[in-house]
Design brief:
The complex is a heterodimer. Chain A is of the alpha/beta class. Helix content of chain A is 39%, strand content 19%. Chain A contains 20 helices and 22 strands. The N terminus of chain A is likely disordered. By secondary structure, chain B is α/β, with parallel strands linked by helices. In chain B, the strands form three sheets. Chain B has a nine-stranded mixed sheet with strand order 2-1-3-4-8-7-11-9-10, sandwiched between helices. In chain B, strands 5-6 form a two-stranded antiparallel ribbon. Chain B has a two-stranded antiparallel sheet with strand order 12-13. The chains are: A alpha/beta, B alpha/beta. At the A-B interface, α2, α7, β9, α9 and α10 of A face β1, β2, α3, α5 and α12 of B. The complex binds thiamine diphosphate, iron/sulfur cluster and magnesium ion.
Chain lengths: 629, 327
């Protein structure tokens, strides 16, 4: 260890630091170089020191993309702020890149703020391969010419002073650099390294701590950037998890003990984590032979016991539709999680889109009323699972939970959930069924009934997906058919009556009302807040329950001069020559609101496969506001 | 769940079940002479002889004529989706390993649309008793070729005769990883059918029975040769398998000793085309069952859940009301 590292590294006095409210930082590398781990750790340290954070994983679509390739960028975007944040934000302020190629993709995608600072690994300038040298130099020159502030950083060379394989340790060196730049506590950072490498032996931890300290010291001497983001320590206990982890924990908390699934990105990591939890706590994750088996297995499990869950994404969701229809028809509780990705077909497997709303509502053939809920953030992913299980069992129906890729891997701190016994499914009812009770003893008003479960004496009957009467006997006559359709539909009305209309974000009246659903809440509200701060008369409404939809939306819409939905899904562009008001294909929520309320709801959508950016939404809304004027 | 005390009390009060207890009261809608009737009778008899509690017995099926069977049972039943009887039954078993689960599926249901599930179901080896009603035709949808239709079968989709050699489910099943019970029965030898379903029920694991089933409506006479000429049936007899009654032994003289633990012999039998082998081709009681491997039926207390959740949340806690949380 060098002498410099033995003494406690000095901290630049705070007065030299520029006070900022927030920054977006990206760490990019080839996959396997640990940029994700670096970003995650940086975010964790920031969060643990009382800053608001939101992280977005940057994931290459392939498992082992070629080194130094534009499409191979792997890493993390971390938005750090002195306040709570609800989305990944706009363009980034500071980028650390392990090579210039991984940076290029992000530059082209417009992810960098004009003139932002780039810390670029400089080893490529002296690479043995002249082609690499040239590529590096050209990119460097172009970036500088384009006005970026590029700081060439000899990460590799510096790390080599401490370890023989800097390829592995560079990420912790960079973590030290970032902690120095943002004035994060080195003690906390050391702890974080220990947590990150907790499973490895002490030598590994020590070596990484040394790299961290070296990065800190190197930046102290060589980088002139010093920022201070105010810390606002939370007053309550907080956890940081991503959306898929929140779904898995929600499943556990709901007392669900069987999950049947088939692997599909971006849903799988929820099942991975759930498998890990269930191995410890009890519970079964069954990896079925395909999605049809997964959904029907879950239905069988639910039928004979407690409500089961199946987790999937677009293509798998399509395959499950026949099973979903069966559960609706036979009135068997079932929770289906669809972590949406870009579609149709195989589409964009790793990227976000909100394209499955209509399939979720109407994907099964015939009239198959079911509940559709879309969590609006990470914390909501957790609680939505508890709600979904409860509704599925109370109403004996299917609840579809629509998350998406932008929530799946994004992390955010939130108040640590405090377990409640009310969350948990009751034990399977095995008491005798009262004399005369019918298998489908539909309540005339609500359509509700008490399901009898195998094992309950006196309740024997055969459930079927064929049209059946209250005794669950097949009957093809019109009265029987309508009796079933009516009562299954009434259940949604019964649930709808219990729903509260969400609060309007902003004033209750104005020029423009923005309506969104699901994962986009944070970006939309940030955009709306920014416009309101400029004095614009815009508000927003965010829907979690889309089927059934709470009452009161019509009245809210009536108090605004224009209503527009903001969705991350396709809608025809009005500027296209062939598109007019009659043939325009609106996005899903706009279509629903138009048909339901006979209001000329417009829509603004983006399908870039990435989380919506508040700045872009804001610009789009400003455009609508101009129209209203 | 029942406490042991309640369990014992219930045992004391356990009523005796008659055959009527396994009848739903519905009159079957199968055609006159349909082999499904014989299968239903065998199952009701089995339930009675085993004194299964109708409230604790589940019959699962797919879609097809044969899949109507659960409606005629006085037990719990699940008439599911075309091809999906097996995954539904697996879900039932995983959630309730305490209940006996039977499956009725057709040749189309099991071997065509549900073939993928069938392969995997054999490999899971869950404790299910599966009857594949093989009439070699699609009955419910009115006479289309099925995977087991003999080549040349004239159907509505193959008016000049079917083009492909019939699929051989016995060989396929016997080639599958973890196969633990394969048998063949014919609907018209009731006593042997009964012995086979009874052995299948008692086998702990996935018991697959192909029941050759007459469909007088769409395959009239297709099985006449076998019904009329006992020589065209090879009865597989063994102490570990089935035994012919003296009365049947007078009729069925084509009898072979076959040890059901002999997989190679079972595979050879499955390949025979001269006469249909009837009996237990293969059984292996030592194949692990998926529901056991997965610890199905283990109950979690609310306290365990709370502790499990808290332990997970501890891992992700970054801030407590006293400051940052080191772990
Ligand atoms: C997804 C789907 N495809 C097709 C059908 C129509 N269908 C119902 S039963 C059946 C075939 C029945 O044949 P089999 O399984 O041999 O049963 P059987 O009627 O002969 O007993 C078909 C094709 C269906 N119900 N669902
Ligand atoms: S069509 Fe064939 S299989 Fe169906 S009920 Fe009639 S005889 Fe039985
Ligand atoms: Mg058939």
């Amino acid at each position: 260890m060098t002498e410099m590292l033995v003494r406690e590294p000095r901290t630049t006095p705070a007065r030299e630091r520029t006070l900022i409210e927030e920054h977006i930082v990206e760490v990019l590398s080839d996959s396997g170089e640990g940029a994700q781990r670096c970003g995650q750790s940086f975010a964790a340290i920031a969060a643990r020191s009382g800053r608001g954070i939101w992280t977005v994983e940057i994931i290459p679509a392939e498992i082992q993309p070629p080194a130094r390739s534009v499409a191979g960028a792997s890493g993390n975007r971390v938005r750090v702020a002195g306040h709570e944040i609800t989305n990944g934000g706009d363009e980034c302020d500071l980028v650390v890149a392990f090579n210039e190629q991984v940076l290029l993709g992000r530059v082209r995608a417009g992810e960098l703020k004009a003139g932002c600072t780039i810390l670029l690994e400089s080893m490529w300038r002296e690479d043995r391969d002249p082609q690499i040298q040239r590529a590096y130099a050209e990119t460097y020159d172009r970036l500088v010419a384009d006005g970026y502030r590029v700081i060439e950083a000899p990460f590799e060379r510096e790390c080599r002073k401490l370890v023989s394989d800097p390829h592995r340790g560079k990420n912790m060196f960079v973590l030290g650099v970032l902690c120095q730049i943002y004035g994060l506590d080195l003690g906390l950072a050391r702890e974080q390294v220990a947590i990150t490498f907790g499973k490895k032996d002490r030598k590994v931890i020590e070596s990484n701590v040394r790299l961290l300290e070296a990065g800190w010291a190197w930046a102290d001497e060589n980088v002139d950037l010093r920022f201070e983001i105010p810390a606002r320590p939370a007053t309550e206990t907080r956890v940081v998890i991503n959306g898929n982890q929140a779904i898995a924990l929600g499943i556990l908390a709901a007392g669900i003990d069987i999950c049947a699934m088939y692997p599909i990105t971006p849903a799988t990591s929820a099942s991975h984590y759930l498998s890990e939890i269930f191995e410890k706590v009890g519970g079964i994750v069954h990896q079925a032979e395909d999605e049809i088996a997964a959904v029907t297995f879950a239905i069988g499990a639910s039928y004979a016991g407690k409500c089961a869950v199946t987790i999937t994404s677009g293509p798998g969701f399509s395959l499950k539709q026949e099973g979903i229809g069966l559960a609706v028809m036979a009135e068997i509780p079932l929770v289906v999680v669809d972590v949406q990705r870009g579609g149709p077909s195989t589409g964009l497997p790793t990227k976000a889109e909100q394209g499955d709303l209509l399939p979720a509502m109407f994907g099964a053939h015939g009239d198959a009323p079911k509940v559709v809920i879309a969590p609006s953030g990470i914390e909501d992913c957790f609680y939505t699972m508890i709600t979904a299980r409860k509704i599925a069992e109370t109403f004996n129906t299917v609840v579809v939970v629509l998350s998406d890729a932008s929530l799946a891997t994004a992390q955010q701190p939130f108040r640590r959930p405090a377990f409640s016994e009310d969350w948990v499914a009751p034990p399977v009812d095995q008491s005798p069924v009262p004399e005369g009770a019918l298998p489908y003893g539909w309540d005339e008003t609500t359509g509700l009934f008490r399901r009898s479960i195998p094992g309950q004496p006196g309740g024997m009957h055969t459930v079927t997906g064929i049209t059946h009467d209250r005794r669950s006997r097949i009957g093809y006559d019109p009265e029987t058919h309508e009796d079933g359709l009516r009562h299954r539909s009434l259940k949604l009305a019964a649930l709808q009556r219990t729903l509260r209309c969400p609060d309007v974000f902003g004033d209750a009246e104005g020029d423009l009302l923005v309506i969104g659903w699901g994962s986009t809440k944070g970006a939309i509200e940030e955009a709306v807040a920014a416009l309101r701060a400029e004095g614009r008369r815009v508000s927003s409404l965010h829907l979690r329950f889309i089927q059934p939809m709470p009452s009161g939306i019509g009245e809210i819409m009536a108090r605004f001069r224009k209503v527009v939905t903001v969705e991350a899904s396709w809608s025809d562009r009005v500027e296209d020559a062939l598109i007019d008001r009659e043939n325009r294909r609106y996005s899903a929520l706009a279509m629903l609101l138009r048909s339901k309320y006979l209001v000329d709801v417009d829509c603004w959508t983006e399908t870039f496969g990435r989380p919506l950016k508040p700045g872009i939404v804001r610009a789009a809304l400003a455009g609508f506001l101009k129209e209203v004027k | 769940m029942l406490t042991p005390v309640v369990d014992r009390l219930l045992c004391m009060a356990e009523p005796h079940h008659d055959i009527e207890d396994y009848q739903s009261g519905l009159v079957s809608r199968w055609c006159v002479g349909c082999g499904d009737n014989a299968i239903l009778t065998a199952m009701q008899r089995l339930c009675r002889d085993e004194q299964l509690d109708p409230a604790r017995t589940v019959f699962v099926s797919g879609i097809g004529c044969s899949s109507r069977l659960p409606h005629y049972m006085g037990t719990y039943g699940f008439h599911g989706l075309h091809g999906r009887a097996l995954p539904i039954a697996e879900g039932v078993k995983m959630s309730r390993p305490d209940l006996p689960v039977f499956v009725s599926t057709g040749d189309g249901d099991c071997l065509s649309i549900g073939a993928g599930h069938w392969m995997h179901a054999i490999r899971y080896n869950m404790d299910l008793t599966v009857l594949m009603h093989d009439n070699r035709i699609y009955g419910l949808t009115k006479k289309q070729a099925s995977p087991t239709s003999p080549i040349g079968t004239k159907t509505n989709t193959t008016p000049k005769g079917s083009y492909l050699e019939a699929f051989d489910p016995l060989s396929a099943a016997l080639g599958m990883t973890n196969v633990s019970f394969v048998a063949q029965a014919v609907d018209w030898i009731a006593d042997v059918l009964y012995q086979i379903v009874s052995a299948a029920y008692r086998h702990k694991g996935f018991s697959f029975i192909r029941v050759v089933q007459r469909c007088p409506e769409f395959m009239p006479g297709a099985f006449d040769a076998y019904v009329q000429d006992p020589q065209k049936t090879v009865i597989l007899q063994h102490p570990k398998g089935i035994a012919l009654s003296p009365a049947l032994a007078k009729v069925y003289k084509n009898v072979r000793e076959h040890d059901p633990s002999d997989l190679a012999a079972a595979r050879a039998l499955a390949q025979e085309r001269e006469a249909i082998p009837v009996g237990i081709l293969y059984r292996n009681d030592d194949v692990p069952r998926y529901e056991e491997l997965r610890g199905a039926g283990r109950l979690r207390t609310t306290d365990e859940l709370r502790r499990g959740l808290d332990a997970e949340l501890d891992r992700f806690t970054i801030w407590s009301d006293t400051g940052p949380v080191p772990q």
